[in-house]
Amino acid sequence: MMLPGWREWLFAFKVSGAALLALGIALWVDLPRPYWAMATVYITMQPLSGATRSKAVYRVVGTLIGVCVAVILVPSLVNAPEVLTLSLALWTAACLYLSLLDRSPRAYLFMLAGYTAALIGFPAVTAPETIFDIAVSRAEEITLGIVCASVVGSLVVPQPVGPVLAARVGAWLAEAGRWTGDVLKGAGEEPAVRARRLRLAAEAAEIDALSTHLAYDTSAQSRAVPLVQLLRGRMLMLLPVLSSLADRIAALRGLGGVTPDLRALLDDVEAWSEAGAPEAEADALLARIEAADQALPPAVSWTALVRAGLLDRLRELVAIGRDCSVLQAHIARGGGRLRAPLAFAGEFGGQAPRHRDHGMALRSALGVFLGTIACVAVWIATAWPDGATAAMMGAVLCCLFAGQDDPAPAIVSFATWTGVAAVAIGVLLFGVMPLVHDFVSLALVLAPALVLCGLLMTLPRTMAVGMALGVNGNALLAIQDRYTSEFGAYVNSSVALVGGIWIAALVTRLVRSVGAEHGARRLIAASRADLARAARRRGRGDRAAFAHLMLDRLGLLVPRLAAAGPDSPLRRIDTLAALRAGMNLVSLRRARHGLPADQVAALDDALDAVAAHYDRPLGAASAVLLERIDASLALIGAEAGGPGRRDALLGLAGLRRALFPEAPPPGAGAPLLTVEAA
């Protein structure tokens, strides 16, 4: 396991210092449960200060909403415990559903609003007359923890998001540059290169998640948030462009169409890319590409179509590469006015769409609902004194891990390490704490354990362990302004805490667990549904929005494919080929508005066949679809036409390559019209 470096140690000391600060203030102002503030610090604190602040506001607002809901529900329904349980469980489930659909820092608002009501409502059931005091105290303690985490994260050697994001973007663009070199050399379809491009898709999703915190940062890059959004759009568009370019180069090589002048142009673009895509040289390259691109004549050949498609993708590659270089430089300087307009200026504005899986969100909501009901049922059936602890922990744990395909192993691990924490805290509580008589000695006793929890949170493999120890360890320690611990009560509380987590794990296993392959299949099915929808719609499509949505899914899909196992048929799917098909469908939807009626009818027949293909389960495209694409190519390519002809021909050629990469060309080098006649 990788040893922690200085950044990890810094975070560990910061989170432990923030926890002790929250504890000290809570004791000073005489809050009833200071340990809630300590536990909140471990939930809130993030290594990057901007990430901590981005979540802090939403956590506070979500907590206040949850408090208000608990204050409304408990007094009104305390005489109807079944209805109260259903109401709290339904509220938590509904908030979790909204949280899973949001997929931004705002999601914490919904999640906190949900399980805060459970945290406050269930313990108050036995004493409803105290609900207002309990609610106010919980709100104060949780808010204190959030504020302490934010202040310490922002003032004590802050780790801003901006430089980290800039470094990640630079590394991503450097890797994309290496892929560009492989593509232009003709090695873009080799297995190692294909694996690398999938990693780029996953890393682009990680960069996107990191960029959501930039607006809350204090670095110079925080002023360049609009430029970051523009850069992100171009980074995402770069993936299908490079994939399409690799496909066209491979196809043209098979046709013997890579002429010496085209090879020289590809080599020059490769050299430009290796030099960092300097802005000054981009215009000259674009002019050369324009000169090499000839008008498509009547009875155009397949080789000419592939060459024209290659030059189109090459033109887009240079334009996007130049934009990326310009935007990266401006972001590093903290923004500033762009000297020249960017390419594709109208395609990257507004909020990029994100994938939302309503089915899995509903399933997760059902899991937390049933998990909460199960905990309450055990509480009532056994008259368990600490049953409220089990109920609230069941609700919280079902929410915390709901974003995973199979949350049960993580919840079980959380339960296991909570048990370890219970034993360790028991030793500390009954063996050491009786000797503590002031806050300084208390801080010295707690500091080593708090630092250890912080260290564990910084390492991906042990993050859940650190959370379990840091959050539940503080809850079990239950520090008050005076020592009042009693062994029997401690054991009962510990059993309730661990028992509630185990009940959550059991219900999750029965209701929610699906596995990585199931999650991958759902993502693929959602993409196929969108491809079918894009083929059926006859309006003009938004190419950038479609690419953003498909690539957002691709970023979610890549880690699931990696976890699906080497023998899974899903790992043999060319995910970027499906994206290329979608981009060509959008181009065809635009092109059909510039075609005569007979050509529109032929094109629509092909699009309907594409929609039928994507409506079916995974499998090879049918020969009927290939015939319709070829028929449409032959009809549109036979005669000179209006402005939509070129886009239609290149879109159909790209669609054919994406769906039938192994199919023989429709009369390579011969007019397409003769293919239809044959």
Beta fraction: under 5%
Distance between the termini: 64 Å
Q: What class do helices, strands and sheet pairing give?
A: mainly alpha
The succession of helices and strands, N to C, reads: HHHHHHHHHHHHHHHHHHHHHHHHH
Count of helical regions: 25
Would you report the number of β strands? 0
> What is the helical fraction, as a range of percent?
over 70%
**Mean pLDDT metric:** 83
Low-confidence parts, pLDDT < 50 over ≥5 residues?
668-678
Shape label: elongated
Please give the radius of gyration in angstroms: 29 Å
The largest pleated sheet is described as:
none
Give the count of structural domains.
Answer: 3
Care to give the gist of this entry?
The protein has 678 residues and is mainly alpha-helical. It folds into three domains: 6-159 and 357-511, no CATH class; 161-332, Four Helix Bundle (Hemerythrin (Met), subunit A); 561-677, no CATH class.
